[in-house]
Design brief:
It is built from 6 helices and no strands. With 186 residues, the protein is mainly α. Helix 5 crosses helix 6.
Length: 186
């Protein structure tokens, strides 16, 4: 715990209370004079004419068809063709994640990786890294025990090891708690 006494020991210069100096505000003797600009009426007319010309240019360049919104047939045919395509808001058209199809690890591959992992837990000399597991799986694929396209990438195996380690530790701690409680009850 930090106390004021410890802080004083750490200080190299003594702490002094600041004594600020300030002056009284000065009084304005002259008023500020700002001229008010009044545009000439001809300039206003020129600006309005320019705005009208710009508006007509914009409207002609956009070239939108005006649609009667009360006419259902007409509105369905002319729904802002240039921006949205038909069915753009449908759920199957939405692109939420760009991953595409997710390739899952096959259950037989998971079982092989679990045995490799658990063998490493029993005997530390047999502990395998993700690359070693990948090599073992490719060796099994060359012996035609498993299909080669079912083998996950090394990064996927690393992620699987991290997740499996976490769940394995959690289940092991739950088992230990249950055993401790059952031994207390007997």
């Amino acid at each position: 715990m930090i106390t004021p006494a410890k802080i004083k020991k750490l200080e190299k210069t003594p702490t002094t209370k600041p004594n600020p100096s300030f002056t009284t505000p000065s009084k304005v003797t002259n008023q500020w004079v700002t001229p008010i600009l009044r545009p000439i009426s001809s300039e206003i007319n020129n600006i309005q004419n320019n705005n009208q010309k710009i508006n007509t240019i914009i409207i002609s360049s956009v070239d939108l068809d005006l649609v009667d919104l009360t006419n259902k047939e007409n509105t369905q045919q002319n729904t802002i063709r240039g921006i949205f395509f038909a069915g753009w808001a449908l759920k199957e058209k939405q692109i939420i994640n760009q991953r595409g199809t997710v390739k899952r690890i096959k259950p037989e591959i998971k079982a092989l990786m679990e045995t490799m992992f658990l063998n490493g837990n029993i005997d530390k000399r047999q502990k395998m890294s993700a690359q070693e597991m990948y090599d073992n799986l490719t060796e099994r694929a060359s012996q035609e025990e498993i299909k080669e396209n079912d083998i996950p990438k090394v990064q996927t195996i690393q992620n699987w090891i991290a997740n499996y380690t976490r769940t394995f530790k959690a289940s092991a701690s739950l088992r230990a708690l249950e055993e401790a409680e059952s031994s207390k009850n007997t």
